[in-house]
Design goal:
Blueprint (H helix, E strand, L loop, with lengths): L25 E5 L2 E6 L10 H14 L7 E6 L10 H9 L3 H20 L4 E4 L3 E3 L1 H8 L2 E4 L4 E3 L14 H9 L1 H10 L2 E3 H7 L4 E2 L5 H13 L3 H13 L5 H15 L3 H11 L10
Parallel strand pairs: 2-3, 3-4, 4-6, 5-7, 6-9
Antiparallel strand pairs: 1-2, 7-8
Helix pairs in contact: 1-3, 5-6, 9-10
Amino acid sequence: MNSKPPPLLNTNMPRELQPYQAQHFAWSTQGNVGIITLNRPERKNPLTLESYAELRELFRALTYAQDIKTIVLTGAEGNFCSGGDVHDIIGPLVSMPMPQLLEFTRMTGDLVLAMRRCPQPIIAAIDGVCAGAGAILAMASDLRLGTARSTTAFLFTRVGLAGCDMGACSILPRLIGQGRASELLFSGRSMSGEEGAAWGFFNRLVEPEQLLMDAIAWAQKLAQGPTFAHGITKTMLHQEWSMSIEQAIEAEAQAQAICMQTEDFKRAYRAFVAKERPQFEGN
């Protein structure tokens, strides 16, 4: 089940000298933006055992990639991701013994944890089919752009499984509310693009031909900001789910004190005094 993990992205040498070669999806960069494209368009970009594992290892490695400031996650040719491949994953799961099944479900959950723990904001650009594990990848991202024709379905109950897959019962209610999340997770029905925007799943909808360009432009804008502070913000958004308000306030006090020691904080002050726009460098 475990594929060979990709090498850690080198943080000392220029990216062009040590390019990351993805095996089970496409990886490219535009400036400081990393772009992950699920690219099995003939099957609507399903995940395999190998792509699950490689995505997990890539997001883990991105924790140490100082030259990558933001990430765009998308699918090829009009669809985002149709979920786990029926032939490569679903079929073998039927005959697996319990220890292997638990190994698989833990591995898929580890992908979500890796996405939540990597400091870069992840923007999911979602068009067409976004189902099963694909819906989970969208859910686990920090920001989501969709289209009116996108259809998002947490369809686990439709194949005889529980809706509590890869953190869905924890994360989805926080995005769209308990009642709406319950409806989608119990029924497995598709959420339209308009519903997703109205419910807060999508930050906004754009035209399909603009989707990737808008996602990259948004990622580039974020990459120009105080990226160390962005990483702290993402960490606190994740960690404060399980905190009391007293714990959250103290944790944020400590996090903000750390950010106040950064050069970006000093740059912002000097720029304000000079009535200029700050030029952040991420340190």
